[in-house]
UniProtKB/TrEMBL annotation:
Keyword tags: ATP-binding, Nucleotide-binding
Spans through the membrane: none
UniProt keyword Acyltransferase, yes or no: no
Record bears the keyword Nucleotide-binding: yes
Domain IstB-like ATP-binding: 185-324
Name of this protein: ATP-binding protein
GO MF annotations in UniProt: ATP binding
Source organism superkingdom: Bacteria
Species name: Blautia parvula
SUPFAM superfamilies, alphabetized: P-loop containing nucleoside triphosphate hydrolases (SSF52540)
UniProt cross-references to Pfam families, sorted A to Z: IstB_IS21 (PF01695)
Amino acid sequence: MSLNNFQYDALMRAYNEKQLNHKHEQDEHIRQAYDKIPRLQEIDGEIASLSLKKARALLLPSPKDDFDLSAAIAELSEERTALLQIHGYPPDYLELKYDCPFCKDTGYVENQKCSCFKKAAVDLLYIQSNIREILETENFENFSFEYYPQDITNPATGLSALETAQDAVDKAWDFIDRFQEHPCGLFFYGDTGVGKTYLSHCIAKELIDRAYFVLYFSSFDLFDLLAKNTFQKDAAASDVAGFIYDCDLLIIDDLGTELTNNFVASQLFCCINERIMNHKSTIISTNLAMDDFLETYSERIFSRISSNYTMLKLVGNDIRIQKKLLGGK
């Protein structure tokens, strides 16, 4: 599990809030029950007195003062339970409740992260990824090779569109399975609608489900955020900008659709270079052909990508159009 301090603190604040809310709920239940059934307060007072009396007996041993504390408390507890049920309350009405009975809303069981903590971490990572809703449909479970024909070939490799897609999926799974010990980059390129973004989403879902911190941006949104952070000193943009360099996986989608200028080029190089130096994985997708990409961005950007990323070209017909022609299937 890969959480930064900000994310961990956010989760622990949520657990603290749960504990406080349940304690307030218990206090209110006790107040209501005491008002309606005064004997309940007397019982709790008697249990406290018996516990103190037992402690004194242990400190100053005397046969005449000794008694079975467990039996005495059990008897009073039975009376309390009976009173609650007679007055229409459930037997556990006065007990402290927990969202998770295993860790009792602490997030830990015997110094190990509870399963609820892991689920909460994944939920938080989904929210912060920017693509929570779309990953419900765009994932490997729904991925289909039926849109990749065998009669269209990749001129560079001689492989059909189907074989090219199958190879890209194999490399995507290799990227996922080796993610922890072998951070690297993937560069998807090809015509519009051949599945570059979809495959990026598939990878994102698998890694988020494994509790990695994934951030997704369209190129326009990424450079707009960086511009706000640089020129407007926007506080919200500043918070997110730090994650761009630190997240486990950064996805930059549709690179080349933004308004390219010197600022964009310098920020792109800084982002790519910084993440390579920090051994952080990045996925970039673009509709640009390699000649156009080299012309749009600097040679040093192209060099850093081609030297450190796995370059995967997808070919075929526009899948969005195919789906429309098939009635959205």
